[in-house]
Design a protein that fits this description.
heterodimer; A: 326 residues; mainly alpha; two-stranded antiparallel ribbon; 67% helix; B: 289 residues; alpha/beta; four-stranded antiparallel sheet; 28% strand
């Protein structure tokens, strides 16, 4: 071979069986971070959409005409500290709802696409030319959807809530809105944030089988991933309905959608007397105060779901490893 | 010296179709092996087996490992370019470098950037903004910077113009290849690479038709060009293939000495070593295969 340029020699064209001299060892964590970054490069919607939602939310906060809420001006409600706290907590929760709704949509698209797109554009042959196991790749995609993106959105929502409070204060000081609308309660805020984080962690376990199911279909379907993901449950529901006249599949899906929240004391509320009678405001701080952290994790169904998720991820990994149609 | 690739009775079937039919061959280190065959001969199936991308029957060792069960370890020492279309279109050049640098223990980023500096490729470009030739250059830059022991190239220059093809092989030969490295490649442009090959393996209908070092070809194969009037006489010596070229007949013989054929070298007759491309056509179409 021709003599390598000096700056190339550091690449270590070490002779014989000694290329180990250039070996740079990497921890699993470093590789995991690279794999997750790869996902965020490819699927930019994962981080751009939440940012857009946050900006829209804050822009609305600042620009929209905010008339007084009917109950905000009600002295009866505002006289009670607990009612005010409950309203504040509800508002803090409500602020995050758009983020999490959008997250569910974006993640559904991501999960159905993540093992399909690479086969469609044949880039899987490039990814597979790298010394990364199929298991590491598949798990990195699952954890991107179940952990990385939700935690990122949690942090973003947290920052948004602080900026929201600051903007409201600014508007009050500018005289745009009534003073009562700029609420702040540090303890309640912390409780709501902790509750949201806790709910997020429970969600990661509870929704793992749904995420793994979408990934499995993404790895398995030759085309029309969305169709393959949605048709089987619909057909199962219809078949069951016609054949047995029962609704077990629907019940199961509904249970898997929000069943776990029954283990939390979400009915916790405070009474407040308004002019035309007593009214109940759900108290999230109350939920936090009575929270038993272990309850959802004592649910066998939660762990059954995790078991199903592990099986589906394993199946998706096997399919990616041995499928041969590119 | 341990073989880089050792196949014994390697077989790959797709349903009732046999893509690779019990082939056996050995590839030694420091060789540049052309795996040459018509479309559908089983080249890609063979490559997929070598790279652990597909299941197969029989015994196959790549760098002493079984590609079926030891694929992850194997990929530290093996690089491959499937073809130019596999770099994802959304990927930026800088991201490609970041990714490989973050994953591959034998990747020297400085080497890749050094090579990219000689091209028109910008770090901020996405793959979809690059021409086909540039995508190949990018892929080549990544591969050249990996200190691998085996490089597998499946039609790496497909769809590229002559300038890019020439540059691709020049770079491969000058900046990458050395006597510890092994390159196995397929291409339909046999004429363009036959000077760089050290070995050829011809494959047809899933079977190895020829497995030979290029420098031992002259001892095994000879091409005799004779005028038409002596063709019948030469045909007595049983060429395995013949064709007419410019009023003369080119005949291809296997294991014939110059002494047997020397008498034809008068009156415009000539003996020569066939080119790999001509030998390929002869082997594919002649009676010898």
């Amino acid at each position: 071979m021709s003599s390598p340029q000096p700056n190339l020699s550091e690449a270590g064209t070490a002779p014989g069986l000694a290329p180990a001299t250039t070996l740079v060892s990497r921890s699993s964590l470093q590789i995991f971070i690279v794999l997750v970054r790869r996902e965020l490069w490819e699927h930019r919607a994962l981080w751009m959409t939440p940012l857009v939602v946050a900006v829209l939310l804050l822009a609305t906060t600042f620009l929209a005409h905010a008339g007084p809420f009917p109950f905000v001006n009600d002295d009866e409600v505002w006289r009670h500290e607990r009612s005010r706290e409950a309203l504040f907590a509800l508002m803090e929760w409500g602020l995050t709802v758009p983020q999490y709704l959008v997250m569910v949509i974006v993640l559904s698209f991501y999960l159905t696409d993540c093992l399909y797109a690479e086969r469609k554009d044949r880039s899987i042959l490039f990814w597979k030319s790298m010394p990364v196991s199929d298991g590491a790749t598949v798990v990195s995609k699952l954890l991107t959807a179940l952990v990385v993106v939700p935690l990122g959105i949690y942090l973003l929502a947290l920052i948004t809530s602080v900026l929201f409070a600051a903007l409201m204060l600014l508007r009050v000081s500018l005289g745009h809105i009534p003073a009562g609308m700029a609420m702040w309660n540090s303890i309640a805020w912390l409780k709501v944030q902790a509750l949201m984080l806790y709910g997020l962690i429970v969600s990661m376990f509870w929704y793992a089988p749904l995420a793994a199911y979408l990934m499995f279909v993404s790895a398995w379907a030759r085309r029309n991933v969305t169709l393959w993901a949605t048709l089987p449950p619909i057909i199962a529901i219809l078949l069951e309905r016609f054949a047995f006249g029962t609704n077990h599949v629907v019940d199961l899906l509904q249970y898997r959608t929000y069943g776990i929240w029954g283990t939390l004391n979400l009915q916790n509320s405070v009474n407040s007397t308004v002019t035309d009678g007593p009214s109940h405001i759900v108290s999230l701080t109350g939920v936090f105060d009575t929270l038993n952290i272990s309850t959802p994790f004592l649910s066998i169904d939660l762990w059954l779901g995790v078991g199903v998720a592990v099986a589906l991820v394993f199946a998706a990994t096997r399919i990616r490893r041995y499928r041969d149609d590119t | 010296m341990t073989a880089v690739i050792e196949a014994r009775g390697l077989k790959k079937t797709y349903g009732v179709t046999t893509a690779v039919d019990s082939v056996s061959f050995t590839i030694q280190p420091g060789r540049i092996v052309g795996l040459i065959g018509p479309n559908g001969a089983g080249k890609t199936s063979l490559f997929k087996a070598i790279l652990g991308l597909t299941q197969f029957d029989g015994d196959l060792r790549v760098l002493g490992r079984d590609p079926r069960s030891e694929r992850n370890d194997l990929m530290q020492d093996v690089c491959f370019i499937a073809d130019v279309a596999v770099l994802p279109r959304w990927l930026r050049v800088s991201q490609a470098l970041d990714f490989v640098a973050g994953i591959h223990p034998r990747f020297a980023r400085s080497r890749a950037t050094e090579f990219l500096r000689t091209t028109d490729i910008k770090m901020s470009s996405r793959v979809r903004e690059l021409s086909k030739g540039m995508v190949t250059q990018l892929h080549l830059a990544l591969i050249l910077a990996i200190d691998a022991r085996l490089l597998v190239l499946d039609e790496p220059t497909l769809g590229l113009d002559l300038l890019f093809r020439r540059q691709f092989y020049d770079t491969l030969l000058n900046d990458y290849f050395d006597k510890e490295r092994t390159i196995v490649l397929t291409t339909h442009q046999v004429e363009e690479i036959e000077n760089l090959l050290t070995d050829v393996i011809f494959i047809n209908r899933g079977q190895v038709v020829l497995d030979c070092a290029v420098d031992s070809l002259p001892a095994r194969y000879v091409q005799l060009n004779v005028t038409n009037d002596r063709a019948a006489e030469a045909r007595q010596l049983q060429p395995f293939y013949e064709r007419e070229v410019f009023g003369r007949v080119a005949m291809f013989f296997e294991n014939k000495t110059a002494a047997e054929l020397g008498s034809f070298c008068t009156n415009g007759g000539e003996l020569r070593t066939p080119s790999v491309a001509d030998l390929f056509v002869a082997k594919m179409q002649g009676t010898g295969s």
